[in-house]
Design brief:
The protein is α/β, with parallel strands linked by helices. It is 48% helix and 16% strand. It has one domain (2-255): 3-Layer(aba) Sandwich (Rossmann fold), CATH 3.40.50.720. 45% of the residues are buried. It binds NADP nicotinamide-adenine-dinucleotide phosphate (NAP). NADP nicotinamide-adenine-dinucleotide phosphate (NAP) binds at residues 23-24, 26-30, 48-50, 53, 74-76, 101-105, 124, 151, 153, 196, 198-199, 201-204.
Length: 262
């Protein structure tokens, strides 16, 4: 009976006492992951580009009784990412979970985009994952293991037209996830990628509603739009000890988008 009660409490708060760092935590999927992690018992470092946005998320967590810290910075800069990892170590005494989630989604074919646009997309969407892993892994090694989750995207599996840089960056994230999983499995560090389809977030707010509805009707056979908290629920599971034997994998949450040929 006692054991069952302990297990139930464990399931209700599957990340109890874990220190987590989430980049791009100020909005959309990152915000939902921060809130879900805090609800699952994690201490959360909310990292992002805009201090006002991450402060609001932190306030929401604090109001609900969670422990939280914020760090503003650019995920494409090594020094900023080191500061984010440092905040987790200083505030919470370790780093158990890193979510490399911050990203941008520029559009354009290779002839349409500039060299600068290409470089920015690769830096924010792919280099950031390299930097996050590079600076989090030594801390995880010191504390006996950890979990890295990378928000990729279905366009990293198969691109849509006009998303050249984004599709290349996200494909890179998927294979980098596998490389990290292989290189650090012996340190009990797991690394998995999440590939959302079209999710309702500030990133997709700008999409013309008619174009969005056409895309959803044609490519996402389950009706309705994927919500950020549905992606966050998957992240909670993958970050928890329930997923202790899962690493190097890509988890698609796309309402059926990748299931077939359209
Ligand atoms: P979002 O609401 O725009 O969130 C992206 C977050 O990343 C924002 O908080 C943004 O900060 C932050 N960010 C951007 N560049 C940054 C930088 N250089 N340094 C630090 N933070 C930076 O979009 P989202 O939809 O939640 O996207 C989250 C992740 O999911 C991204 O990697 C995206 O590619 C991926 N994804 C989204 C979808 C979708 O349909 N929404 C589908 C597949 C994959 P600011 O707000 O301050 O700019």
């Amino acid at each position: 009976m006692g054991d069952r009660m302990t297990q139930t409490a464990h399931c209700a708060r599957p990340l109890a006492g874990k220190a987590a760092l989430v980049t791009g935590g100020g909005s959309g999927i990152g915000r939902a992951i921060c809130l879900a992690f805090a609800q699952a018992g994690a201490h959360v470092v909310v990292a992002g580009r805009t201090l006002g946005k991450i402060a609001l998320v932190a306030e929401e967590i604090r109001t609900n009784g969670g422990q939280v810290a914020t760090v503003a910075g650019d995920v494409s800069r090594g020094a900023d990412v080191q500061a984010m990892v440092g905040a987790a170590l200083e505030q919470f005494g370790g780093l158990d979970v890193l979510v490399n989630n911050a990203g941008i989604s520029p559009s354009g074919s290779v002839t349409a985009i500039s060299e600068a646009e290409w470089d920015e997309c690769i830096a924010v969407d792919l280099r950031s994952v390299f930097l996050g892993a590079k600076y989090a892994i030594p801390a995880m090694q010191r504390y006996g293991g950890g979990v890295i989750l990378n928000t990729a995207g279905t366009f990293g599996l198969r691109p849509a037209r006009g998303k050249a840089a984004y599709a290349a960056a996200k494909a890179g994230v998927i294979n980098l996830t596998r490389a990290i999983a292989l290189d650090y499995a012996h340190d009990a560090i797991r690394c998995n990628a999440i590939c959302p389809g079209f999710v309702a977030t500030p990133l997709t707010e700008g999409v013309d509603p008619a174009e969005r509805d056409r895309f959803l009707a044609q490519y996402q056979p389950l009706s309705g739009v994927i919500q950020a908290d549905e992606v966050a629920a998957l992240a909670v599971y993958l970050a928890s000890d329930a997923a202790r034997m899962i690493t190097g994998q890509t988890f698609v949450i796309d309402a059926g988008q990748q299931a077939g040929i359209y």
